[in-house]
Design a protein that fits this description.
The structure holds 2 protein chains of 2 kinds. Chain A contains no helices and 11 strands. In chain A, strands 2, 4, 5, 9, 10 and 11 form a 6-stranded mixed sheet that branches. The radius of gyration of chain A is 13 Å and the shape is globular. The model of chain B has no long low-confidence stretch (mean pLDDT 92). By secondary structure, chain B is an all-beta fold. Chain B is built from no helices and 11 strands. Chain B is globular and about 45 Å long. Classes of the chains: A mainly beta, B mainly beta. Chains A and B meet through β4, β5, β9 and β10 of A and β5, β9 and β10 of B.
């Protein structure tokens, strides 16, 4: 079993839809949780950065962390074609030297 | 916007050759990380530096891999005697850890666009 599990998709939605992306993990010691967006042939771009459980909102993006269930989510409201990319979840222990990534979910938003 | 810069963007070489990649972090960042990403997978941590000190290298894939950050600014990742399985994207990231928290702190990492290595 991988330490971080993420459904690779692909996921295809119409423009304007609400997108839900999820990851589960096995190491209960993870404390920091990140979401990155990666366009083709580009490096990962940090979208959300959260500590411990709870919700964090930034514009159209909302990140949720449920440590009791070892489950994190990213919601994208009013999705746009420009949101089409691979979304990577990542998490780490207190010391952020070693982020563990999911495999990424490939999202396509159709106009 | 002076983000993390990596050079070259793409490197094609024959099996058995040595290759070296360069990373220039965000200028004020004191931590620098190297990751490898293969197709369809998330990045995999390799090593990191705090200023010029390499504080973690046990995750380097083999003794053919080495990294340096001699002056605490740019870093190089070298792969000797390349093999087919080394074909991947090599990503560099950097972060800023405040001096009073250098013993163990979590700050977001910002990535460059990577060097894509292709072994013929």
């Amino acid at each position: 079993q991988k330490e971080v599990e993420q459904d690779p998709g692909p996921l295809s939605v119409p423009e304007g839809a609400i997108v839900s992306l999820n990851c589960t993990y096995s190491n209960s010691a993870f404390q920091y949780f990140m979401w990155y967006r990666q366009y083709s042939r580009k490096g990962p771009e940090l979208l959300m950065y959260t500590y411990s459980s709870g919700n964090k909102e930034d514009g159209r993006f909302t990140a949720q962390v449920d440590k009791s269930s070892k489950y994190i989510s990213l919601f994208i409201r009013d999705s746009q074609p420009s949101d089409s990319a691979t979304y990577l979840c990542a998490m780490s222990l207190y010391n952020n030297n070693d982020m563990r990534f999911g495999a990424g979910t490939r999202l396509t938003v159709k106009p | 916007d002076t983000g993390v810069s990596q050079d070259p963007r793409h490197k094609i070489t024959k099996r058995g050759q040595n290759v070296t990649f360069r990373c220039d972090p965000i200028s004020e960042h004191n931590r620098l990380y190297w990751y490898r990403q293969t197709l369809g997978q998330g990045p995999e941590f390799l090593t990191y530096f705090q200023n010029e000190a390499q504080l973690e290298k046990s995750r380097l894939l083999s003794d053919r891999f080495s990294a340096e950050r001699p002056k605490g600014s740019f870093s190089t990742l070298e792969i000797q005697r390349t093999e087919q399985g080394d074909s991947a994207m090599y990503l560099c990231a950097s972060s800023l850890v405040p001096p009073d928290r250098e013993g163990g702190s979590n700050q977001p990492q910002h990535f460059g666009d990577g060097t894509r290595l292709s072994i013929l």
